[in-house]
Amino acid sequence: MVSSVYFAAKTDLQWDSDLKPLQPKLIPTSVYKNLCLLSVIFAFSVGLTIGILIPLIYLKGSDNNRTELLIKPTANPNLIRTVFLNNSYAFRNDSKQYSSVSFIDGVKKGYELIEDGIFWGKQIENSLPEGYKDKKHGIWEDYVKNAVAIKMENGCGRMQNRLITFQDGLKGCVRYRQNTDQIQGELFSFYLAKILNLPNLAPSTVSVVDLKQPLWQNLRNEIAAAQWNSNRPIVLTQFITNLKSSNIPNVFKPIERHLNKFDVINMTKNELLDKNDMNKMLVELAQWSDLIIFDYLTANLDRIVNNLYNYQWNVNIMDAPAHNLARKSDSDLLVFLDNESGLLHGYRLLKKYEIYHSILLENLCIFRRPTADKIKKLRNDKNIGFLLRGMFEKLNSDSVKDILPTLPDKSVKILNERIEKVHNQILKFLKPLIFW
């Protein structure tokens, strides 16, 4: 039977007479079954081992990193960055946990907090304190031009700063420094805040210590006692009353140092806070959004970065009041004080401190829309140097410009680069379908 089938197939295919069919080597059925069984067992064992070991290794490594930073703080950039990012709510909570939570529906009804997932909503924007804007800045500048000081005393911070009283009873803080670049840093940081429309810096202007001028002529003895030199530039800032210390919000303390919509959702679940207290807390955080951007742009060393750096040796430092930050008790306005390290001194030390500047920015995921829009415009126009120098030329007398240099090209270049980084941070969290 087999022979007849073979020759029939050969005839149909017109095989060559010398071609012979291949005879397969048959494997015994029992051996074949055993090989299949062994293969299945081996594959299952390997898969099970990998599936168990990888999560264990990851969790152990993550826990070790967190423990190491808490027990023995370190300035290692990679460890610091890993700990901060791994403790972000965006990292730790997948979307399923909040799948039933609309960002608006998940909080109190009608209480709009966030727009487009990353911008503070109108309710928060409308609740922000007015602060100091162009009109108030202009009033102060005009006032100082004709002011006469009658008293100078210790105050307004450290070193050679002084509190002066004018003949009508108003007061001002004078920042005197031996290093001109610190006066430049204070002044151009103030100008940058004006360009960004940040209302958190007190009105300031530049003057020159000149005993022949009405502003200074009554203060000869006090100036001599302060060991001030004549013909030196100073920054004269309006004295702000009703100031009290301001603590760092919990979301920016180790190791939970971030601010995103999941943080806000968690805050709204706090049943101990009524609507007014909740609104007050979120208004403060909206101002912190601006503060982090402002300090990143200027590379300010004397505020939160100072705390982050010293956290290596003092783990309790984040519980202390924020350095060079105050709150007006009558309006809850945050006042950004002492910006002299901005744009010059801070830029020279970026190699050492940039990791701390970047960590704060990278963990900021909610922004004020007006600030974000201004950042976008500055990034697209690339004219920040022109704007800052234009303010300097317009607002200052020839005597000031003769002894105080304008902002150097190197600082302008670095500032443009940092504007680009802030812009990219905002873009990172925008929904793809939103045109911005």
Automatic annotation (TrEMBL):
A single GO BP: cell-cell signaling
Signal peptide from the UniProt entry: none
Highest taxon of the lineage: Eukaryota
Keyword set includes Membrane: yes
Keyword Membrane carried by entry: yes
Transmembrane regions: 35-59
Coiled-coil region: none
GO CC annotations on file: extracellular space
Keywords: Membrane, Transmembrane, Transmembrane helix
PANTHER family, per database record: FOUR-JOINTED BOX PROTEIN 1
UniProt name for this protein: Extracellular serine/threonine protein kinase four-jointed
